[in-house]
Amino acid sequence: MALSGEQWSISYAGREAVIVEVGGGLRSFTVDGDAYVDGYFEDELCPGGAGQVLAPWPNRLGDGAYEFGGKKYQLPLSEPANRNASHGLVRWLRWQAVDHDPDSVTVECALPAQPGYPFPIVLRTRWSVGPYGLRAVHTAVNLGASPAPFGLGVHPYLKVPGTPIADLTLDLPAKLRLKTDERKLPVGDEPYANASAKIGDTVIDAAFGDLARDADGNIAIALSTGDGRGVTLWADESFPWAQIYTADAFGDERKRRAVAIEPMSCPPDAFRTGRDLVTLAPGEIWSGTWGIKPRR
Q1: Domain 7-295: which CATH number of 3.40.50.1260, 3.40.50.10280, 3.30.499.10, 2.70.98.10
Q2: Could you count the other beta carbons within 10 Å of the beta carbon of residue 189?
Q3: What is d(CA 77, CA 183) in angstroms, rounded to the nearest whole number?
Q4: Which of 69, 76, 115, 259 is the most buried if burial means most Cβ atoms within 10 Å?
Q5: What is d(CA 11, CA 30) in angstroms, rounded to the nearest whole number?
Q6: 50 or 195, which is more confident?
C-alpha cells in the first residue's frame, strides 16, 4: 500500500484532483496537466502538511496545554523543538470514502475521545472539481455528551505553473497580522496594509485576520503573474483567518516553490486564548467551505 494510503481521483473537463486516505487531504490538483498545488507522490510521506486537514485545531497550541469547561488538558507535543502541539489530531489518521462520483469524493474520519481531547468528533470533507475549479466542504459533528472546543484549517501549497514565487504578486486583503514569538505563538496584533505586492525575496510565515469579504461573504487571496495568469484561494465566513507561508523551512527542492495559503477557523493558540474558538454543543454540526480557482 502507498504511504499515503488509498487514492481517490476526481475529474471534470480537464480539472483533476487526488484525495488520499491518510489525512483525508489533497495530494494534487491540476488543470489540463498543469499543477496548481505543490503536491507529492503517492508513496511519499506528506511533506510540510501539504494539503492536509488540520483539526480539531489548526496551527500551534503552546505547550499542548489548555483549559476548557473548568478542566485542564494536556496534548502530546507534535512539535517538540518549540514545545507545541501542532495542526491537530487527524493529519495521520485513515479517512474512509463514504461517497465517490467521477467529479467528487466525500471522506470521513471518526476522531475518538482520547487523553488531552476527550471529545468524539466525526469529520467529513466533500472534495469536488468543476467549472469553478476545486471546492472543499467540511463538516464536524460532536458525538459526545459535553461541549467540545473545535477549530479547523487546511494546508494547501499554491503555485502558478511555470512561474517562481518570487515573480508572483500576492494579493492579501487583510487589515491585521499576528505578531508571534520564537515559538510561532501569538503575542499581539499589528496593522497590515491590505497589501498587493510582488513576493520577491520576502519571507512570510504569519497569520492574517480582518480579511475583506465580497458580496457573498467570501475572502479571496490570490497569486498572479504579470500576464493575467494566477490562482485564487477563496473561503466562506467560517474561515476568518489565513496563514501565509512562503515555504522557507524546506531543506530541499520544495523550498520557496509554492506558497501555503491556509484558511483557518481560528488563529494559532486558540485553545488557550479562546479567540474565535468554536464550541460545539453535543450533536451540533459545524461547516465551512473553501476552494481553489485557477486563472489561465
Answers
A1: 2.70.98.10
A2: 14
A3: 13
A4: 259
A5: 9
A6: 50
